[in-house]
Amino acid sequence: MDEHFFKDDDVKMLLLTLMRLRLNLPIQHIALIICIDRKTVSTTFRDTIATMFTQLSPLVHWPERHCLQGSIPHQFVEAFGNRVSVIVDCFEINSERASHLKARAQTFSHYKHRHTLKYLIGITPQGAISFISKGWGGRVSDKHVTDNSGLLNKLLPGDLVLADQDSVGLMCAEVKIPAFTRGRCQLDAKDVEETRQIAHLRVHVERVIGCVRIKYTILSEMIPVSMVLPCEDEDMIFLDKSVSVCYALTNMCPSVVMKP
User: Fold this and answer.
1) This model's pTM is above 0.85
2) Domain match, 25 and 101 both
3) Domain boundaries, position 214
């Protein structure tokens, strides 16, 4: 590698951070590649993520209703008019087992049967990421995360939310969830068609989550306990900043819904 390639320290800091996010290379591996000590790599990664979080967080923003409605893809309009404001889902990131007993209990996901951090993501019908929550211990339910993440405060009366569970009724918004038989032998034709439409359109949020996991493999593999420690004087953990940076960077890429 050209010895002049890393003459700019800022470039070196950004490169090692992106290597960590995209490839999930071990700290020691990156230290050997860049020829600096392991502690410097670790410190640089945290400092650069903090800076990127501050600069890139505005890329994940809740759009004004008139901006949203002006470019809703036709498949959403055909199914639900121009009322869909957000498609939501939760995803989990695997974490190492914490040594602290309380933290260990809070992060254990009975659904996943391992320790995880859970996040709520919201995307617009256009495929842009418009909301990302802070991390919650995998023990809590998706509904609890939705109710307490701050997402509901962003909804306006008349907004339509595509979700897999009902949490927005009290906000004067409407939620569309897949129908269940509720004791009936089978769904009627109307419920079947609406469930099909919801499933067809909700798949976009799953595609976004999958896209981010592929681009930034650090979110697909076991994250160290050090990443779930609180940031100094801040009401968030380091993983929250890392997740936010990854999703902000994804918003700079072409949409998975609207093709060029």
Assistant:
1) yes
2) no
3) 60-250
